[in-house]
Amino acid sequence: MKKIAVALFTMTLVLNSCKNETKTDTIKVDKKTTSTTVSTVEIIPISHATMVLNYAKETIYVDPTGGKEAFEGQKEPTIVLITDIHGDHLNFDTLKALDLKNALIVAPQAVVDKFPEDFKPNFNVIANSETSIVNNTIIEAIPMYNLREDALKFHAKGRGNGYVLTIGGQRIYISGDTEDIPEMRELKNIDKAFVCMNLPYTMTVDSAASAVLDFKPKQVYPYHYRGTEGLSDVAKFKTLVNNANPDIKVVQLDWYSDN
Q: How many beta carbons lie within 10 A of that of residue 113, not counting itself?
């Protein structure tokens, strides 16, 4: 009983400390840093599904790929989030090249099972619908999977994780590889949402827009939108979202500057 009380007290302290942070935002776009007044989270797009989130003393690498050179000039990670087993999310060459001595890798079991015996960094295994607190970051694992019959082979339900992070008093959703699943549509109180849209692996622009209009994040960032036929039409996505709900801000970052 004492352990439960302590855990609840710790959760309350974390949530209260997040709410008391000063609200300022730095977003890195086109490899240049600009400032607004939205949150204390710095968002740095690397490529496709890979990004860096900086907040206070935390540096979170999401699905790090691209080799060590892709993270030149970035702070060393304190948390590494990995969503799935595919190469655009789980890249051992990149992970081995990075300095992970102060980092905890948060990932589903299917990802951890892929790590070779000679490379075993620190792990926190989290499954769909579970919540973990890492340092001062609350991490919720959200299901990610396909719905279309012809796409079920790509992402089975329960294997990979999307994530909702609570940092800087904000809830940040990272979809991972998924379609417009009920668990996405039912999300609540999302401040920033990173939503994928690429065929044949995830979902159409129309499906992504429909889901976003259901869960109504304050801001939505199209990401992971390169498919087998090139880049998805994110301009159409913005039009679909804003024609139906102009209060949702669609933020376009530079994910594919080398294309």
A: 10
Judged by DSSP in three states, 199 sits in coil
- What is the distance between the alpha carbons of residues 175 and 224, in angstroms, rounded to a whole number? 9
Write phi, then psi, for 92 (nearest 5 degrees): -70, -35
Residue 198 in tokens: 């690429």
C-alpha 81/C-alpha 137 separation (Å) is 12
- The answer to whether 181 touches 155, Cβ cutoff 8 Å, is no
Residue 11, strand partner residues: none
pTM for the model stands at 0.83
> In terms of Cα–Cα distance, which of 227, 218, 110, 221 is closest to 157?
110
**Are 207 and 198 in contact, with CB atoms under 8 Å apart?**
no
pLDDT digits (tens, 9 = 90+) for 55-69: 999 999 999 999 999
* Spatial separation of the C-alpha atoms in residues 188 and 215, rounded to whole Å: 6
Rounded to 10 deg, the angle between the 234-244 and 205-215 helix axes is 30
Residues 128, 183: Cα–Cα separation, whole Å: 10
DSSP designation for 75: P
Q: Residue 252: which of 216, 215, 219 has the closest Cα?
A: 219
Question: Could you tell me if 155 and 178 are in contact, meaning their C-beta atoms sit under 8 angstroms apart?
Answer: yes
Q: Residue 21 carries which DSSP code?
A: S
126-183 residue pLDDT tens: 999 999 999 889 999 999 998 867 766 777 999 999 999 999 889 999 999 999 999 9
- CB contact at 8 A, 238 and 213: no
